[in-house]
């Protein structure tokens, strides 16, 4: 059986900036992947669903894992699942939710692969209690550049495990993963929405609502003055009673690129005002299905087209707890004053940092924003980077499309250890992305 | 529980269809060339709820092996409720035009092997007086076009063979289903530029499962290909021969 190599194609991440000409190789089995890799004469990078926003899965030679999508073994007594890395979270949920199991950690879209979730060490609305995706990963099989496959975990080749989780595909190719699922009694979530009139109130709410299993805030990044940082804080708890029904969600699609002028400061300001006013009281409780709670944007296919043909950059930063309040005020003021807004701005309190060398989260606050790509955006983001560094924060690699190497190296101090481990496993020069080259991880 | 035999089981459409039957708790027997991929697929179907998932390797061109392989499959399953024949290769038209052996090889893989398999399986179903024979043909078999008429000829032969088989087996309670997918986004078509006419394998699989349940005779998947082909077939040959399709 032969594998498939695409013609030379224009490749882009979900933010559609930047672009790269490249070939996509799609192995049909892990065996083919093992045979292919040692014979490859150029560096490659692994890609799953292509949902990282920037250039972390772009290269001249991309290995796509979507056909490596088998569920290999499941133990219904313990919830332990072994599967290929190309399985999507959507597929896992569609198979296991009816059996009463859920992902212990899930990002804001289910259209990512297990391998991608591990390589970006993604986090979700329960990070403050449960940590990153790697927390539900017991072990991995990683294909190294020489064609050998190693099993790694917290106790076996631990340094490979901790550099592969969050390692952006730069150590090797994740072939299979063993995960733990968590039992649920119902597909319903009890959602509580709390209104915060400004940033200080929002941060106080995160502190006072710390016991909530899930928490995230939508933040109006165009509000200024007394309303700077006004937010809607959404909390969620799994319901204990009810059913395990899955919904046939009614999807809508953005059929083509919207004119890039559609999203401007006026339209976004109008949207934000309406969105904030939607919640009338101080606190509103609703019983909702898990899909709209965790994956509100998954219902809008190709939502990235809203930003027009030129694409957008998603910018996600984290600031440590003690710098948080002052830092966020400074950064939000800077963004609000610039008039650049995103109607998908998200604020969340994160839990402690883990042992993975390039994992993003720190104990503190994270802010995620979309910025439409305009000629003056990149210098503006460099200014934001400088402020993030001032407050000892950092930028999320899964979203990054433009950070400078110096910024990366200052904010991810374990990068040298990461490179040393890559050298030890023969990964240097064999796995590389547009991002890794830009960040000086050659 | 339904007993399902799938030939060409690792193809994208077959895999998606098998997964749908697995979640209904079917007994499934898989035939394909690649043993490693078969083993992974069997494990996958078991996790998804298949009552059993057995595998054996088979090269569609090894026609002499069919009787013993099929008999083993039928014995293991203890009878057959549904057969899905899904193997095939997308012929390289230009290469075939320059190479007689390649042309004949493509015709063997895409038509003769299917006819040989169905000859055996049709007799079995006729004897047991029930069963569904579901076969993946193609919209390409509805009219010859310069861009892929080797593939189209083979699929057209399969479609006509199935018409005759349906006519013969109807009175024996055997359901014969001709499946005509349009463009499907599979590894087989990885080298093609994709447009709005392209469908995902799982969309085709959902259509196959429904067509089997509803005992349909011929299905175009997605359904609107019926209308596209209606137009394509209606173009007079005098005009059609001048088109670059």
TrEMBL record, chain B:
Superkingdom of origin: Bacteria
Signal peptide span: none
Keywords assigned: Oxidoreductase
GO cellular component: membrane
Listed GO MF terms: oxidoreductase activity
Pfam families, sorted: adh_short
NCBIfam families noted in UniProt: PRK07102.1 (NF005489)
Protein family: Belongs to the short-chain dehydrogenases/reductases (SDR) family.
Protein name (record): SDR family oxidoreductase
